[in-house]
Amino acid sequence: MHAYPKLTGSLGEVLRYHERKVRKGQAECLYAGNMLKEAKALTLNEKRFFIERLESLNDRVVRKTLHIFLSFHKDDILDDAKMRMICKEYMDRMGLGKHPYLVYRHWDAVHAHAHIVSTSIRKDGRRMDLWQQQFFQSLSISRELEKKYGLYQAGKRVPNEEWARKHPAQKIVYGKTPLRPTMNAVLERVLDNYTYTSLEELNALLRGYNLVASRGSENSVTHRRHGLLYYPLKASGKKEDVYIKASALSGKPTLRNLELRFAQNLRVYEEKQQRVKTAIDWVFYKQPVDMEAFRKALLKDRIRVIDGGASGEGVFYLDEGSKAIYDGRTLGPAYSVEGVRARCIPEEEYRKVQELDLKQELRQRPRLGLH
């Protein structure tokens, strides 16, 4: 069991996030602590009222909403009653048992997990700060609750072979495959075995596993601080609402560390790219092709064409022989998505060319005579 307490400045945003999950059938409000009604009988405004009543006692504090994430091992079997007991005892032992709080159980991951929403403002208006002491206290309480309730013992050493067998590199399906272990397995396979020189090229590889690394929008704190977040992808190619920070993943695939890899890979990049450019030019030299025929022709040379993701922008070439991926724009205008489309003929015209070639082939075949 892992507990992650953090402070945020927006109670409304946190509650709306969980209530959206409830409406989608991905979560349930399991318990309401120190409120006048049972959880299921509370409206959203009532849930907000009990917590905001304490938050209003101190206007000087910006980050007053306490959001605690309790994550359990996938082998832990927890019914609702047991999860309620664990959450209540955790809050009591953290000294927060008399605060108003809500427990949401989420069903959108392979492992059981709960979110507790409360406030850091006490009844006398003083705030509770999350210093290092509180994090150590939370960790200690988690270990004790594991023993008391017969949960998986966090930190238990698992042999590398067993870990790899249980968590192979595979496509991430949010809510079905374990998120962090599968992300770690995918990144371990991709980062060390392929040549890439930009975040865009790396993401073209990761999208094959329903994973993408994002710097966030240009105005976001993550972008300004040179941070990186890893998101699972939906079937549509769009990002899920959850992410894991690069620094929290094994191998620390942060932007700074990736940029070092980009620079190292660039040294051998130019040596390998000529094969891809030659293969592309040869496809167009041999005969007119449409986009689909272009893809199939390159596959014969073990070069896979990868689209630019949900936005549909850009094209990438993965050379399976050298394990190197190239952004078409870096190879030159003729190899970009616009350049390739301009060199291809329309699908209808390509079918006519194929039919004409077939007719000519049939005319040229020798006829077998009777003797």
Question: Nutshell version of this structure?
Answer:
This protein has 371 residues and is an alpha+beta fold. It has 13 helices and 11 strands.
Kindly provide the name of the CATH class of the largest domain: Alpha Beta
Distance between the termini: 86 Å
**Strand order of the biggest β-sheet:** 1-3-5-4-2
Major beta sheet summary:
5 strands, antiparallel
Q: How many separate helices? A: 13
Helix proportion: 40-55%
Give me the strand/helix succession.
EHEHEHEEHHHHEHEEHHEEEHHH
Assign the CATH architecture of the largest domain: 2-Layer Sandwich
Count of the separate structural domains: 3
CATH topology of the largest domain: BirA Bifunctional Protein, domain 2
CA-based shape:
elongated
Strand-residue proportion = 15-25%
Number of strands: 11
Backbone structural class: alpha+beta
- pLDDT averaged residue by residue: 88
Radius of gyration: 28 Å
> Quaternary status of these chains?
single chain
Low-confidence segments? none
Structural description of this entry:
A 5-stranded antiparallel β-sheet has the order 1-3-5-4-2, with helices on both faces. α1 runs antiparallel to α2 and α3 (80-93) packs antiparallel against α4 (132-149). It is an alpha+beta fold and 371 residues long. The protein has 3 domains: 2-149, BirA Bifunctional Protein, domain 2 (2-Layer Sandwich); 161-257, no CATH class; 268-355, no CATH class. Helix content is 43%, strand content 16%.
